[in-house]
């Protein structure tokens, strides 16, 4: 059975204890620890890499929403976020940081279990969306609609993130393939010698790059901006090419 590692974050002791109790009652959840502030939680998340974060929003010094934004670009898999809050006007902001669900206090165990089950489903779907690629592999399987599609790595030009989906753009194909998996999850399974993350929303095939400029990559007529946090790593690759 899949077991998801969890962290609960809330500055209200009673609310934190309630979430802790709900987690303990749920067979597929395992509580790593609890935090009473988002600053402490940020360090714990980096160290323990939880699968799920039950996160209050209104907290002093650093809010839950600010923490959710900060961890979007951390290395490694991102935890799924379930917001727990007494305020209902954060739903749109929660959507922007890819929150799985939004529990409005006071919430019942039934509501908690529904949100947790949604996280479990997304986790299992992501794990089943691809076949791990090794250095010797020349293809990958992705689930596209109701079929497993075999995709040759040499045919991939670039991969684009569309929230919970990726769009795989192929050479000599007018239609991209859409699959329900995060860009980060797919990035971890692609060989680093052939593919590189150059933007929060893009992975490119290094073999398909036709030109480069100071801040952009070109794949034929498609221009992809290199994100600020990816520039240094990409510069190392370019410097090797130009030697």
Automatic annotation (TrEMBL):
Give residues where 4-aspartylphosphate occurs: 56
Which residues are in the HTH LytTR-type domain? 140-209
- PANTHER family named among the record's database cross-references: STAGE 0 SPORULATION PROTEIN A HOMOLOG (PTHR37299:SF1), TRANSCRIPTIONAL REGULATOR-RELATED (PTHR37299)
Alphabetical list of Gene3D superfamilies matching this protein: 3.40.50.2300, LytTr DNA-binding domain
Q: Name one GO molecular function term.
A: DNA binding
DNA-binding: present as a keyword of the record?
Answer: yes
Concerning SUPFAM superfamilies, the annotation shows: CheY-like
Keywords of this entry: DNA-binding, Phosphoprotein
Response regulatory domain residues are: 5-120
Q: Which InterPro entries match?
A: CheY-like_superfamily, LytR-like, LytTR_DNA-bd_dom, Sig_transdc_resp-reg_receiver
Q: What is this protein called?
A: LytTR family DNA-binding domain-containing protein
Q: Which Pfam families match?
A: LytTR (PF04397), Response_reg (PF00072)
